[in-house]
Write a structure and sequence with these properties.
The chain is an alpha/beta fold. It has nine helices and ten strands.
């Protein structure tokens, strides 16, 4: 770790109270940044603040928590405004908030579930890019935006249809924004995690089951951790990546090169895939929407009967 790499810099991390987002917040704090952690879940946000206060002398002074629904533009704008008001500037925007979202056979997915999924995964990234770009341009010193996409956005069958389609949108949004903002020295990149055993994937109750499935499909023997993705995010956000923009960096333990994105026995629209476990290991054919680590329970609808 390069201590002080973000000394004097200010970051906003959405989804910052859990999983990859939490690991990113801690990493940025450890490397000297001031951070606004924006997350929907107030309970995990409070826990983050308490843990930082207990573990690192003085770091709590460089941390703010703002309860944020990233699908609501005003909430994301408020998180950026908090960074500007409390710390005086913005240097890094990490659009990380995510949910597993709508799942099930395409003919059974509810439109409202689909729209809610895109509200979090795509609109949330868009408004994060929008308001960070405004702040960066006003400062006139450039900046770095890192979005969390997924290997599910790179090929069909790697996740539920809504999730995969949304993450593909994040990758394309990243590249388009990078092209548009390059002249202002604003870099825009994304990371594409593989199977990281976080609350989004396992809902806190299936860690061993998800780990066992990863063992079957991932060639690298160690499971990916939130810290692994946080390290990639911080690389892309740092001056070490000063000539990198428009990139979709895959961090997946070789999952994509192995062809193992769909789980054994997953064939068919009702089969399981690497991103479908946020619904609590719902049986194949089940339809609904997973709320990830928001603190809200997933909605499960039984498979249709004929």
């Amino acid at each position: 770790m390069t201590i002080g790499r973000f000394e004097g810099r200010v970051a906003v991390v959405t989804g910052g109270a859990s999983g990859i987002g939490r690991a990113t917040v801690i990493r940025l704090l450890d490397e000297g940044a001031s951070v606004v952690a924006a997350d929907y879940n107030a309970a995990t946000g409070a826990a983050l603040v308490d843990d930082v206060a207990a573990s690192a002398a003085g770091a709590e002074k460089r941390l703010r928590f703002v309860r944020t629904d990233v699908s609501v533009e005003a909430d994301v704008a408020a998180a950026v405004s908090t960074a500007l008001a409390d710390f005086g500037r913005l240097d890094v925007m990490v659009n990380n908030a995510g949910v597993a979202g709508a799942f099930g056979p395409v003919e059974a997915i509810e439109v409202d579930d689909w729209d809610w999924t895109f509200g979090v995964l795509v609109r949330g990234v868009f408004v994060g890019v929008k308001h960070a770009a405004r702040a960066f341009k006003a400062q006139g010193e450039g900046g770095a935006i890192v979005n969390t996409a997924s290997v599910a956005g790179l090929r069909a069958g790697a996740g539920p249809l809504a999730y995969s389609t949304a993450k593909a949108g994040v990758i394309n949004l990243t590249r388009g924004a990078a092209l548009e903002l390059a002249e202002d020295r604003v870099r825009v990149n994304c990371v594409c995690p593989g199977g990281i055993n976080t609350p989004l994937l396992n809902q806190g109750v299936n860690e061993q089951a998800v780990g066992s499935l990863l063992d079957q499909v991932q060639p690298w023997p160690d499971h990916g951790r939130p810290d692994d993705i946080a390290a990639a995010i911080c690389f892309l956000a740092s001056d070490d990546a000063r000539f990198v923009t428009g990139e979709a960096l895959v961090v997946d333990g070789g999952l994509t090169i192995s062809g193992g994105l769909r789980l054994p026995g997953a064939g068919g629209a009702g089969g399981r895939s690497m991103a479908s476990f946020g619904a609590g290991m719902a049986p194949p054919g089940t339809t609904g929407v997973s709320k990830g680590s928001t603190g809200e329970a997933p909605v499960l609808r039984p498979p249709a009967t004929t």
